Amino acid sequence: MEEQEHQQSTDQTEPELLYHYTDQKGLLGILDSKSIWATHFRYLNDTSEGRIVFSTALDELNSRVNSDAMMLTFGMQPIKRSKKIECEDEEIFSQGVAMLTWVTSPDVFVTSFSEKGDSLSQWRAYSGRSGGYSIGFRLDYLREVGRNFLGGRSVALAQGAEALLRCIYYNKREETALKDEVERMVTAYIGEAAEMAKLPMVEGIQGFRTPAALAIRHFLNLGTRSAITKDDGFREEAEWRLAFLLRHNPADIDIEVRPGSSMPIPYLAVPLSYEGMDRPISIDDIIVGPCPHPSEAAKSVELLLARSGFRGVRVKNSQIPYRSW
Residues 17, 112: contact at Cβ < 8 Å? Predict the structure, then answer.
């Protein structure tokens, strides 16, 4: 069963549409502002966000320490010795930890989408007293939106300059795959850093040989992996993300803040249209979540779309018999 789930998560074809769930206020805001919010991932509902990949890699680095003196220096408990390549240099270890922390804990802002447009778990989250809505966007259109946002901001990075990414759900198989990948990275980093330390210093190129520079090069891809790896308990959401990883001063790109239930929530306003775009804002569907008056709710969405200049959008009601009122 577990292997089947992994195959489904990695082998399935890309969906034509992705759905963004929101409440009434969110729907009005998206249609009026022609933009969508990307929220800082530390403020999402998954408390493990951004921690799974870092913890796995840190455990691997810790397992390579081969001296009790180094363990004492870094406040570590004695552990069973690794049979893999070990780290004997305090600077190589400390810089590895520092750069691993840096690449896996940038300011990451995400907008969440689901492959499922009519999902009970999502309606439970968004069908409050004001009603929930599922907005269907074409996948290729969202890619274009992400590329435009990245292209206009040199501080925003994503893997291969691609912002739209499918989430990875951390089950037993994914845990094994991640540990194998991290083991190879750590081995390569320690080995190369140890070899570089033996070479004579050469003015002008020494900066490229430092443990910090080598660690960044070996660990950099873990930043994106960290931004899209989620606990397996969230698998039902079938989530994709527009993910923006900020590695410089976030203030450079106009972060905004909205009220949250217990604290202010930082976010980015991502434009859904821009000068030079070769197509209009591409909304294909809006599904009205379970509510007491479905026909009236659908009609009001149709009028809202017409007022906002949207044409050809299919508006339909959820088929799930869920009652939240």
Answer: no
Spatial distance between the Cα atoms of 290 and 133, rounded to a whole number of angstroms: 9
Q: Tell the residue number behind the tokens 């195959």, with chain if given.
A: 7
Residue 136 amino acid letter? G
DSSP letter string, 46-102: -TTTTTHHHHHHHHHHHHTB--HHHHHHTTPPP-PPPSS--B--HHHHHHHHHHHHH
Query: Tens digits of per-residue pLDDT, 92-108?
Result: 999 999 999 988 877 88
CA 262 to chain centre: 22
296/306 Cα distance (integer angstroms): 15
Q: CA nearest 134: which of 24, 271, 233?
A: 24
Burial class of 43 by CB neighbour count within 10 A (0 to 12, 13 to 18, 19+): middle
DSSP 137-166: EEHHHHHHHHHHHHHT-TTEE-GGG--EEE
The C-alpha atoms of residue 162 and residue 243 are separated, in whole angstroms, by 9
Closest CA to 218 of 177, 247, 184: 184
Residue 163's pLDDT band (cuts 50, 70, 90): confident
CA nearest to 169, candidates 218, 123, 112, 234: 234
Q: Look up the pTM and report it.
A: 0.83
State CA 111 to chain mean position distance. Answer: 8
The burial of 215, by beta-carbon neighbours within 10 Å (0-12 exposed, 13-18 middle, 19 or more buried), is given as buried
